Protein backbone atom coordinates (compact mmCIF):
# COMPACT_ATOMS: atom_id res chain seq x y z
CA UNK A 1 0.00 0.00 0.00
CA UNK A 2 1.37 3.42 -0.93
CA UNK A 3 -0.60 5.63 1.45
CA UNK A 4 -2.34 4.57 4.63
CA UNK A 5 -4.32 6.99 6.75
CA UNK A 6 -5.24 5.22 9.95
CA UNK A 7 -7.91 6.36 12.35
CA UNK A 8 -6.95 10.04 12.28
CA UNK A 9 -8.61 12.61 14.47
CA UNK A 10 -8.16 16.29 13.68
CA UNK A 11 -9.38 19.32 15.62
CA UNK A 12 -9.95 22.96 14.82
CA UNK A 13 -9.82 24.31 18.36
CA UNK A 14 -12.48 22.38 20.23
CA UNK A 15 -14.25 21.22 17.08
CA UNK A 16 -13.40 17.68 16.07
CA UNK A 17 -13.47 17.82 12.27
CA UNK A 18 -12.17 14.27 11.68
CA UNK A 19 -13.41 11.60 14.07
CA UNK A 20 -11.22 8.65 13.22
CA UNK A 21 -10.86 8.55 9.42
CA UNK A 22 -9.08 5.65 7.72
CA UNK A 23 -8.24 5.73 4.02
CA UNK A 24 -5.97 3.49 1.97
CA UNK A 25 -4.49 4.21 -1.43
CA UNK A 26 -2.68 1.56 -3.45
CA UNK A 27 -0.07 2.32 -6.07
CA UNK A 28 -1.64 3.06 -9.44
CA UNK A 29 -5.12 3.78 -8.13
CA UNK A 30 -7.42 6.76 -8.38
CA UNK A 31 -9.20 6.96 -5.04
CA UNK A 32 -11.85 9.57 -4.36
CA UNK A 33 -13.35 11.04 -1.20
CA UNK A 34 -16.89 12.26 -1.64
CA UNK A 35 -19.34 13.80 0.81
CA UNK A 36 -21.40 16.87 1.58
CA UNK A 37 -20.04 20.30 2.57
CA UNK A 38 -18.21 20.13 5.86
CA UNK A 39 -17.87 16.33 5.86
CA UNK A 40 -14.10 16.60 6.31
CA UNK A 41 -12.75 15.92 2.81
CA UNK A 42 -10.47 18.95 2.58
CA UNK A 43 -9.30 18.49 6.16
CA UNK A 44 -8.33 14.89 5.36
CA UNK A 45 -6.30 16.04 2.36
CA UNK A 46 -4.66 18.88 4.30
CA UNK A 47 -3.71 16.48 7.06
CA UNK A 48 -2.13 14.11 4.55
CA UNK A 49 -0.13 16.94 2.99
CA UNK A 50 0.94 18.22 6.41
CA UNK A 51 -0.97 21.51 6.46
CA UNK A 52 -2.95 20.34 9.51
CA UNK A 53 -1.62 18.40 12.46
CA UNK A 54 -3.44 15.35 13.79
CA UNK A 55 -4.56 14.72 17.37
CA UNK A 56 -4.29 10.95 17.04
CA UNK A 57 -3.94 8.24 14.43
CA UNK A 58 -1.18 7.88 11.86
CA UNK A 59 -0.27 8.45 8.23
CA UNK A 60 2.11 6.08 6.49
CA UNK A 61 3.45 6.90 3.05
CA UNK A 62 5.70 4.68 0.98
CA UNK A 63 6.52 2.57 4.02
CA UNK A 64 7.37 5.49 6.35
CA UNK A 65 5.37 7.03 9.16
CA UNK A 66 5.00 10.66 8.05
CA UNK A 67 2.50 11.69 10.74
CA UNK A 68 4.90 14.29 12.13
CA UNK A 69 6.85 15.11 9.00
CA UNK A 70 6.65 18.80 7.95
CA UNK A 71 4.69 19.52 4.78
CA UNK A 72 7.65 20.53 2.58
CA UNK A 73 9.39 17.24 3.35
CA UNK A 74 6.24 15.36 2.36
CA UNK A 75 6.45 17.06 -1.05
CA UNK A 76 10.04 15.87 -1.38
CA UNK A 77 8.94 12.39 -0.27
CA UNK A 78 6.46 12.30 -3.17
CA UNK A 79 3.15 13.79 -2.04
CA UNK A 80 2.10 16.53 -4.47
CA UNK A 81 -0.94 18.70 -3.98
CA UNK A 82 -3.08 20.97 -6.11
CA UNK A 83 -4.96 22.73 -3.31
CA UNK A 84 -8.56 23.91 -3.13
CA UNK A 85 -8.67 27.43 -4.53
CA UNK A 86 -5.68 26.55 -6.73
CA UNK A 87 -3.06 28.75 -5.00
CA UNK A 88 -1.54 29.97 -8.25
CA UNK A 89 1.08 32.73 -7.83
CA UNK A 90 -0.82 35.62 -9.45
CA UNK A 91 2.16 37.87 -10.19
CA UNK A 92 4.28 35.17 -11.80
CA UNK A 93 4.04 33.88 -15.35
CA UNK A 94 2.58 30.49 -16.12
CA UNK A 95 6.09 29.25 -16.87
CA UNK A 96 7.51 30.52 -13.59
CA UNK A 97 4.54 29.05 -11.68
CA UNK A 98 5.45 25.68 -13.17
CA UNK A 99 9.13 26.12 -12.31
CA UNK A 100 8.11 26.84 -8.70
CA UNK A 101 6.60 23.36 -8.65
CA UNK A 102 10.06 21.91 -9.21
CA UNK A 103 11.56 24.05 -6.42
CA UNK A 104 12.23 21.06 -4.19
CA UNK A 105 13.98 19.11 -6.93
CA UNK A 106 17.51 19.06 -8.16
CA UNK A 107 18.71 17.99 -11.59
CA UNK A 108 17.22 18.45 -14.99
CA UNK A 109 13.44 18.68 -15.23
CA UNK A 110 13.16 19.86 -18.85
CA UNK A 111 11.41 16.64 -19.85
CA UNK A 112 8.82 17.04 -17.09
CA UNK A 113 8.15 20.61 -18.14
CA UNK A 114 7.67 19.43 -21.72
CA UNK A 115 5.28 16.73 -20.49
CA UNK A 116 3.18 19.26 -18.53
CA UNK A 117 2.97 21.48 -21.62
CA UNK A 118 1.98 18.44 -23.66
CA UNK A 119 -0.76 17.50 -21.17
CA UNK A 120 -1.98 21.09 -21.01
CA UNK A 121 -1.48 22.77 -24.44
CA UNK A 122 -3.39 25.78 -23.05
CA UNK A 123 -0.55 26.38 -20.60
CA UNK A 124 2.00 26.13 -23.40
CA UNK A 125 0.10 28.77 -25.40
CA UNK A 126 0.05 31.07 -22.40
CA UNK A 127 3.39 30.45 -20.84
CA UNK A 128 4.21 34.17 -20.58
CA UNK A 129 0.81 35.21 -19.19
CA UNK A 130 0.54 36.12 -15.50
CA UNK A 131 -0.99 33.36 -13.39
CA UNK A 132 -3.49 35.76 -11.84
CA UNK A 133 -4.97 36.70 -15.21
CA UNK A 134 -5.70 33.11 -16.24
CA UNK A 135 -9.32 31.91 -16.19
CA UNK A 136 -10.55 29.64 -13.38
CA UNK A 137 -10.14 26.51 -15.49
CA UNK A 138 -6.71 27.55 -16.69
CA UNK A 139 -5.62 28.22 -13.13
CA UNK A 140 -6.80 24.74 -12.21
CA UNK A 141 -4.68 23.32 -15.02
CA UNK A 142 -1.75 25.40 -13.80
CA UNK A 143 -2.18 24.16 -10.22
CA UNK A 144 -2.19 20.54 -11.39
CA UNK A 145 0.73 21.14 -13.75
CA UNK A 146 2.72 22.80 -10.97
CA UNK A 147 2.04 19.87 -8.63
CA UNK A 148 3.24 17.47 -11.35
CA UNK A 149 6.52 19.36 -11.63
CA UNK A 150 7.46 17.95 -8.20
CA UNK A 151 7.12 14.49 -9.80
CA UNK A 152 4.82 13.16 -7.09
CA UNK A 153 4.12 9.49 -6.44
CA UNK A 154 0.68 10.51 -5.22
CA UNK A 155 -1.16 13.56 -6.54
CA UNK A 156 -3.61 15.03 -4.03
CA UNK A 157 -6.37 16.99 -5.76
CA UNK A 158 -8.86 19.11 -3.87
CA UNK A 159 -12.04 19.80 -5.84
CA UNK A 160 -10.47 20.34 -9.27
CA UNK A 161 -13.94 20.77 -10.81
CA UNK A 162 -15.01 23.58 -8.49
CA UNK A 163 -16.53 26.53 -10.32
CA UNK A 164 -15.81 25.18 -13.79
CA UNK A 165 -18.20 24.87 -16.73
CA UNK A 166 -19.23 21.27 -17.53
CA UNK A 167 -17.08 21.01 -20.66
CA UNK A 168 -14.01 22.11 -18.74
CA UNK A 169 -14.82 19.72 -15.90
CA UNK A 170 -14.87 16.94 -18.48
CA UNK A 171 -11.49 18.04 -19.83
CA UNK A 172 -9.89 18.25 -16.39
CA UNK A 173 -11.17 14.78 -15.49
CA UNK A 174 -9.83 13.34 -18.76
CA UNK A 175 -6.42 14.83 -17.99
CA UNK A 176 -6.48 13.39 -14.47
CA UNK A 177 -7.20 9.98 -16.00
CA UNK A 178 -4.29 10.42 -18.40
CA UNK A 179 -1.96 11.47 -15.56
CA UNK A 180 -2.96 8.29 -13.73
CA UNK A 181 -2.45 6.18 -16.87
CA UNK A 182 1.08 7.53 -17.08
CA UNK A 183 1.82 6.20 -13.61
CA UNK A 184 0.80 8.74 -10.96
CA UNK A 185 -1.46 7.57 -8.16
CA UNK A 186 -4.29 10.02 -7.44
CA UNK A 187 -6.28 10.88 -4.32
CA UNK A 188 -9.15 13.11 -5.38
CA UNK A 189 -11.55 15.09 -3.19
CA UNK A 190 -14.72 16.04 -5.05
CA UNK A 191 -18.14 17.57 -4.56
CA UNK A 192 -18.95 16.38 -8.06
CA UNK A 193 -19.55 12.82 -6.91
CA UNK A 194 -20.91 11.59 -10.23
CA UNK A 195 -17.79 12.52 -12.21
CA UNK A 196 -15.45 11.47 -9.42
CA UNK A 197 -17.02 8.01 -9.12
CA UNK A 198 -16.88 7.52 -12.89
CA UNK A 199 -13.17 8.30 -12.86
CA UNK A 200 -12.03 6.56 -9.67
CA UNK A 201 -11.25 2.94 -8.95
CA UNK A 202 -12.36 3.13 -5.31
CA UNK A 203 -14.17 5.67 -3.17
CA UNK A 204 -14.88 6.65 0.40
CA UNK A 205 -18.04 8.45 1.48
CA UNK A 206 -17.51 10.90 4.33
CA UNK A 207 -20.19 12.25 6.65
CA UNK A 208 -19.50 14.59 9.57
CA UNK A 209 -15.89 13.54 9.99
CA UNK A 210 -16.32 9.80 9.52
CA UNK A 211 -16.10 7.30 6.70
CA UNK A 212 -19.59 5.84 6.32
CA UNK A 213 -18.96 3.75 3.21
CA UNK A 214 -16.02 2.56 1.16
CA UNK A 215 -16.27 0.44 -1.96
CA UNK A 216 -15.24 0.17 -5.60
CA UNK A 217 -16.41 3.35 -7.30
CA UNK A 218 -18.74 1.59 -9.75
CA UNK A 219 -20.46 -0.14 -6.85
CA UNK A 220 -21.14 3.22 -5.19
CA UNK A 221 -22.39 4.66 -8.49
CA UNK A 222 -25.09 1.99 -8.41
CA UNK A 223 -25.80 2.21 -4.69
CA UNK A 224 -29.33 3.60 -4.22
CA UNK A 225 -28.50 5.37 -0.94
CA UNK A 226 -25.43 7.02 -2.51
CA UNK A 227 -27.46 7.93 -5.58
CA UNK A 228 -30.12 9.54 -3.42
CA UNK A 229 -27.68 11.43 -1.22
CA UNK A 230 -24.94 12.48 -3.63
CA UNK A 231 -25.92 11.85 -7.23
CA UNK A 232 -28.93 14.14 -7.53
CA UNK A 233 -31.36 11.38 -6.72
CA UNK A 234 -33.51 13.11 -4.12
CA UNK A 235 -33.60 13.87 -0.41
CA UNK A 236 -30.40 13.60 1.63
CA UNK A 237 -29.87 10.25 3.31
CA UNK A 238 -28.07 9.81 6.57
CA UNK A 239 -25.84 6.87 5.55
CA UNK A 240 -24.42 6.61 9.05
CA UNK A 241 -27.88 6.20 10.60
CA UNK A 242 -28.88 3.73 7.89
CA UNK A 243 -25.76 1.64 8.54
CA UNK A 244 -26.48 1.66 12.29
CA UNK A 245 -30.08 0.63 11.64
CA UNK A 246 -28.92 -2.29 9.53
CA UNK A 247 -26.70 -3.73 12.31
CA UNK A 248 -28.96 -5.33 14.99
CA UNK A 249 -30.25 -8.66 13.65
CA UNK A 250 -33.33 -8.53 15.84
CA UNK A 251 -34.19 -4.94 14.93
CA UNK A 252 -37.73 -4.31 13.68
CA UNK A 253 -38.21 -3.71 9.97
CA UNK A 254 -36.71 -0.38 8.90
CA UNK A 255 -39.21 2.39 8.20
CA UNK A 256 -36.87 3.67 5.47
CA UNK A 257 -38.05 3.07 1.89
CA UNK A 258 -36.81 -0.13 0.30
CA UNK A 259 -33.83 0.26 -2.08
CA UNK A 260 -36.07 -0.50 -5.06
CA UNK A 261 -38.43 2.36 -4.13
CA UNK A 262 -35.47 4.72 -3.83
CA UNK A 263 -34.19 3.65 -7.22
CA UNK A 264 -37.56 4.50 -8.72
CA UNK A 265 -37.39 7.97 -7.24
CA UNK A 266 -33.89 8.41 -8.66
CA UNK A 267 -35.01 7.40 -12.11
CA UNK A 268 -38.04 9.65 -12.07
CA UNK A 269 -35.94 12.66 -11.20
CA UNK A 270 -33.04 12.02 -13.52
N1 LIG B 1 -10.05 26.67 9.62
C1 LIG B 1 -11.10 26.11 10.23
N2 LIG B 1 -11.50 26.50 11.45
C2 LIG B 1 -12.54 25.91 12.09
N3 LIG B 1 -13.26 24.91 11.58
C3 LIG B 1 -12.92 24.48 10.34
C4 LIG B 1 -11.83 25.04 9.61
N4 LIG B 1 -11.74 24.41 8.42
C5 LIG B 1 -12.72 23.49 8.41
N5 LIG B 1 -13.43 23.52 9.55
C6 LIG B 1 -14.57 22.67 9.92
O1 LIG B 1 -14.18 21.31 9.82
C7 LIG B 1 -15.23 20.54 9.23
C8 LIG B 1 -14.71 19.83 7.98
O2 LIG B 1 -14.45 20.82 6.99
P1 LIG B 1 -13.79 20.46 5.57
O3 LIG B 1 -13.45 21.75 4.90
O4 LIG B 1 -12.73 19.47 5.75
O5 LIG B 1 -15.03 19.76 4.85
P2 LIG B 1 -15.22 19.41 3.32
O6 LIG B 1 -15.84 18.06 3.30
O7 LIG B 1 -13.97 19.60 2.56
O8 LIG B 1 -16.30 20.47 2.87
P3 LIG B 1 -16.37 21.35 1.50
O9 LIG B 1 -16.77 20.39 0.44
O10 LIG B 1 -17.44 22.33 1.83
O11 LIG B 1 -15.03 21.97 1.28
C9 LIG B 1 -16.37 21.49 8.97
O12 LIG B 1 -17.27 21.40 10.04
C10 LIG B 1 -15.70 22.85 8.95
O13 LIG B 1 -16.58 23.86 9.38
From TrEMBL:
It comes from Streptosporangium oxazolinicum. Keywords: Amino-acid transport, ATP-binding, Nucleotide-binding, Transport. Residues 260-270 have a biased composition (Basic and acidic residues). The lineage of its organism: Bacteria, Bacillati, Actinomycetota, Actinomycetes, Streptosporangiales. Transmembrane segments: none annotated. Residues 249-258 have a biased composition (Pro residues). This is ABC transporter ATP-binding protein. GO terms for molecular function: ATP binding. Residues 239-270 are annotated as: Disordered. Signal peptide: none annotated. Belongs to the ABC transporter superfamily. Residues 3-233 form the ABC transporter domain.
